[in-house]
TrEMBL record, chains A, B:
CC cofactor: FAD
Entries under PANTHER family matching the protein: ACYL-COA DEHYDROGENASE, ACYL-COA DEHYDROGENASE FADE28
Boundaries of every Acyl-CoA dehydrogenase/oxidase N-terminal domain copy: 37-112
Keywords: FAD, Flavoprotein, Oxidoreductase
Lineage top rank: taxon: Bacteria
Family: Belongs to the acyl-CoA dehydrogenase family.
Protein name per UniProt: Acyl-CoA dehydrogenase
Gene3D superfamilies, per database record: Acyl-CoA dehydrogenase/oxidase, N-terminal domain (1.10.540.10), Butyryl-CoA Dehydrogenase, subunit A, domain 2 (2.40.110.10), Butyryl-CoA Dehydrogenase, subunit A, domain 3 (1.20.140.10)
Occurrences of domain Acyl-CoA dehydrogenase/oxidase C-terminal (ranges): 216-341
Lineage: Bacteria, Pseudomonadati, Pseudomonadota, Gammaproteobacteria, Nevskiales
TrEMBL record, chains C, D:
Keywords from the named record: FAD, Flavoprotein, Oxidoreductase
Protein name: Acyl-CoA dehydrogenase
Start and end residues of each Acyl-CoA oxidase/dehydrogenase middle domain: 125-219
Cofactor(s) essential for the protein: FAD
Acyl-CoA dehydrogenase/oxidase C-terminal domain: residues covered: 231-385
Flavoprotein in keyword set: yes
Gene Ontology terms for molecular function: flavin adenine dinucleotide binding; oxidoreductase activity, acting on the CH-CH group of donors
SUPFAM superfamilies hit by this protein: Acyl-CoA dehydrogenase C-terminal domain-like, Acyl-CoA dehydrogenase NM domain-like
InterPro entries: Acyl-CoA_Oxase/DH_mid-dom (IPR006091), Acyl-CoA_Oxase/DH_mid-dom_sf (IPR046373), AcylCo_DH-like_C (IPR036250), AcylCo_DH/oxidase_C (IPR009075), AcylCoA_DH/ox_N (IPR013786), AcylCoA_DH/ox_N_sf (IPR037069), AcylCoA_DH/oxidase_NM_dom_sf (IPR009100), Mycobact_Acyl-CoA_DH (IPR052161)
Amino acid sequence: MSASNTYQRSDAESQLIELRDSARQVLSGLGLAVNEEKVWPIVTDLGWLLVGVPETLGGLEQGVTGSCAFHAELGRSLAAAPYAAATIAIDAICHSTLANQQSLIERFATGEIVTASLAESAVAIASNKVTGTMTAVPSADKASHVLVCVENSELVALLSLNQPGVEITARQTWDTTRRLFDVRFADVALDETLTLASGADAKTLSSRISTLRDFALAADAVGGAEALLEMTVEYLKTRKQFGRPLALFQALKHRCADLKMLISSAEALLNDSLSRVGNQLDGAQAVAMGKAAKYLACSVYARVAEESLQLHGGIGMTSEYPCHLYLKRALLNEHLGSGNYELDIADHFLS
Amino acid sequence: MSASNTYQRSDAESQLIELRDSARQVLSGLGLAVNEEKVWPIVTDLGWLLVGVPETLGGLEQGVTGSCAFHAELGRSLAAAPYAAATIAIDAICHSTLANQQSLIERFATGEIVTASLAESAVAIASNKVTGTMTAVPSADKASHVLVCVENSELVALLSLNQPGVEITARQTWDTTRRLFDVRFADVALDETLTLASGADAKTLSSRISTLRDFALAADAVGGAEALLEMTVEYLKTRKQFGRPLALFQALKHRCADLKMLISSAEALLNDSLSRVGNQLDGAQAVAMGKAAKYLACSVYARVAEESLQLHGGIGMTSEYPCHLYLKRALLNEHLGSGNYELDIADHFLS
Amino acid sequence: MNSTVDSNNLREEVRAWLTQNVPQDWRQAMTGTDQDAFVKAQRDWFNKLVAAGYATPHWPEGWPGGGRSLADQKIIYEETARADAPRLILFFVALYHSACTLMEWGTQEQKEKYLPGILKGEIWCQGFSEPNAGSDLASVKTRAELKGDRYVINGQKTWSTMAQYADKCLLLTRTGKSEPPQGGLTYLLLDMKAKGVSVRPISQITGDDEFAEIFFDDVEVLVEDRVGKDGEGWAVAQSTLSSERGLTLVELTQRMRYSLAKVAEVMRERGRASDPAIRKELGALIAKVNASCALADQYLLKRISGTEAAGDASIVKLNYARTLREFTKLGMSISGLQGQYFEDFTRGGSQETGNWTVDFMNSYNWSIAGGSDEIQRNIIAERMLLMPREPKNWQLS
Amino acid sequence: MNSTVDSNNLREEVRAWLTQNVPQDWRQAMTGTDQDAFVKAQRDWFNKLVAAGYATPHWPEGWPGGGRSLADQKIIYEETARADAPRLILFFVALYHSACTLMEWGTQEQKEKYLPGILKGEIWCQGFSEPNAGSDLASVKTRAELKGDRYVINGQKTWSTMAQYADKCLLLTRTGKSEPPQGGLTYLLLDMKAKGVSVRPISQITGDDEFAEIFFDDVEVLVEDRVGKDGEGWAVAQSTLSSERGLTLVELTQRMRYSLAKVAEVMRERGRASDPAIRKELGALIAKVNASCALADQYLLKRISGTEAAGDASIVKLNYARTLREFTKLGMSISGLQGQYFEDFTRGGSQETGNWTVDFMNSYNWSIAGGSDEIQRNIIAERMLLMPREPKNWQLS
């Protein structure tokens, strides 16, 4: 009714939408669940690892919202790339006080792989030597370095993976679109030129890292869920039973509508949280927002994947058809990250 | 394929079916949610309180299965009668070593009301005097006696409600088909001629009483859920929208089918448990079975009531239409009984 | 001028005003009291808001506090929710439905005749729904027969919010005969005191009566009180229905968010504050409630930016109804047996009656009224996912 | 003779025999091994059961262990589940579907030709389902053309359990042209080694291949291998499908019940044994699993007593599928990240592969195959609740 309702998209928003659209085009050209060998060169060539990096460090300044847009696109196409782990590590470098920040970012954004854990780690430090195990580390076999958060957040550092005392074990998951590894350290010496933060700064940075991981998993889930529902609806429109397209059956329509609503809610929460936290990812509030976004998106993704499998009927149960790839990625997403999400959210609220 | 598959209904089974059918006929003649003044004389005149009582004590020897069939019928018709509480108390008398068993049963089966708590009580005994509070005691204002299980199961007794130190407070519930009371005792003397069990016997009897209560609530829930689903399906067949009966919409059909399946499962569990426990209601196994039957039936009832309210649309939200009476009884049923059902079932299984 | 600074100023101004002006005892005044006390409490609060310009920020400039952007209106609603101020339920139809319909479709004479009355506190109700029509607005049967300079109305409306208190009514009638269902509808402004109008409150399952039936027995309405042309009622009704533009759901979701503290409260009261199973449920609920808020906010943004797509509104409503159900159910479940005892509750308190069991029952208003969940699912499936519609002539064989 | 005593005797006898005879290492022998090892393990177990008379208690007297009542058969299944013995999945079609169909419809010659082979270990498969036919059996398109003394078959079947191992096939074909869908079907017995038959295992999402596609390219079957008359295939297929009479679901629900201990096991392994939220979920699951057992038991009783009603079977199956989903999902969820790592699992282990994630994926076999959950809901709504069927000519408008 009022005349004063105007809204202008900012330049940054417009740029991000362009970036995302072109990413979607590139990825859909590659096809679903394309392997790391094919995706990674594209990721580095097109500078996708620089999306969230500040302009002052040679990046596109799109912040976490920017990298999440790409996590969603990679989730949508089920791409097998260590993009999430690498962006988390690069972000940590950006937020360190390291002197050689810029050169490290250049190395890791253009070819050399840096990775990080997508789950929990139990790594301790004693006499400047690191011991312990990191789980769910993507592409550790090809990475030169890994981001390590030491227990109790005393220290955040990069460790070279090509040195004595490092043992890398492949852990095949049901989700074949990810290549995860356990990384074990036995008395591995720290390289002080790769220490990102220590003391109170390390606590802050650790908290940022885990929030970022939660947002990355949430975005992957939202992208995957959206693509899967589209695929399922298309299937129902095509497939006929009793002489009618399945999409005409109201019971199935209503289930798809519910899924659409759930995905929209997870997406809205993710976007809202990203815009609220901005670049401030380390406070208790931001951590709780990351956890809520991750919990909701991943549980919605699993729900969409389970329903989609049922809605596809027999064909969804065959390995030829990609429905199960989404299911397995969704199940893995639910179990990545750390802690008991629902409890942590409640704890923060009640504290 | 084999010829040797024959099955004959026993005389007791046939008799129970007859009893139940006639009860249904009587109750449906009275209409839904008819008040206590109208139902109670029928309950006593027709001897329904004697269904579960042994023949040796003048009963119909139909056991717990028998009384549960009547709980289900009363649940179906939303009858406002202290039938469950009275049968529990009468059953306790039957399983006591009281000398005047027979005369007490006659009194309570024919007019004088004995009641019991349908929830938790906190009643302690000191120097032969009883102090504490019983909650959710039906029709305590009209009853002459109440069944009391003292804390830690030291004693099970009947207490006269017409004596000093007894305070009866009406607790109006959203469920208007039940009239519940709090009963407070302040130093009320025990009448030794009304002590049903003490010591180890009291533990056994207390356990029987709580199992019986669980089965009674389960049966009420199964009966109510069945009647409500029938009502809802009838409504959907009658009501038209967009020129078609609602019952033609597949999304609604599928939801009704799910409810039917859930009710069948709760009913099957109840019947199976009753036939397994027989008259042995006091062991840990029987207690766990009672809890499982109560938990499943009451949660299914609540689910059916919630869905039925939605399926009825606007009319279900009006107080004139009986849909909400089932909802409120279902919600109350979920909160009657004692303990945390799911946890107790798991505890028993894991022990 | 920087709009963020501007918004912050408004936010602070509203917040300060609310601190001063929200009656601290409004819940008590509206709990366990009769209808008159309820109406008086609503009217007092309405007068305060009108005076402060916070009742009509959505009206054009020139009216009290008018000419504000949707973003500013949102701030006012958010702060009202945050301050736990009463909802203006008795005046909502007048302030939004009636005013916006008149602004868009009314003649100059109609505006002059009706708008000032709204600010003075005239209560309006909506006469759209009919018995047995459910969510199917096109099946309106109430007849309006044109006789000279007036329409003569016969029929019945139902589920009209607070119609028993209303002075005026937005009435959707059928004048045409053979047109398709959406055609042949005509939109009238009715005086509830007119001869032949009778109102019967609907007794709800909570014992409250927020809705009423309206009966028309040869009721006369002058042609000058028709909005739009004869037969144009469908289009006019659409703008009535979209008049609040998503603000209501912003308000309601914000209120739900602020009410999460009440779940914590009942957990403490019932000794369940450290029960991990309940805490887990609470954690899941917090995420869902925040998502409902985010959805409503983003929907408003879409309306502001003109990027709303078919089905968007259905998603917000379906999601709110579901979250509200889970929210009230958790509160009720934690309340245990205690929650099943009857207690007085805040009249017209909608989702915040102070009684979890009433809130739970009221939550069905949102999944049934204003287009049931089932209708929203149809819309999402057909208009958003582009799944085929059921055939028109689909009849029982 | 008292039947309870009788039953107890059988129960003890079976239990004792199983204690002696279930290969203790059968899981290891069927985990991470190739197909041959799996077939050998199945065959060894089959031979033991046949010798003991526990493979064919449902065959008439005269056959090994034959002539037993359904109640006795149930005891054998219950005890097999209790002993965690392997399921005879490779021979199930032969022992039930083929045998019962032959007993009911077969000629004397057919019985003599085929039944002894079954006891010797011939493997049968079922050729009913077709691509794009889903749960709609009446839409069989595989053609059988009568040419002299033989049928010539062309077409394709799918989702045939273990067809890659099968010696023989129960084949449903279309011979008629213009009859209604259920008419025009003809039931044949096919030698899987016949010229023109080719089999392609279906690679499942678990990596297992319990099912296969079968292709027919001018395959010839003699008229003497037809069961029932030409065009009578629908009726014959119905008795094939109902041959196990509910026993399978008794067995499966019992196995699920005994597997509840595995949930407790994974809780301990993952340090969640005292987590109240998980314990609560376990408690709810226990009630549901016991209810599934009770439903299956009572369904069998109805079959025994001839009181089965329309829809009863659908309720049992729909309920089992749902409970199995919840059961496997809880196990998977407790397993945490560990459960998402690929591990070898017991081949053909169905719901008890030793891997919760595989069990969870396999649970969809029960909600999709053999009439999907959606079909079961249609049946329950239409045949049990007597809600109207969708019109026959309901087409996209």
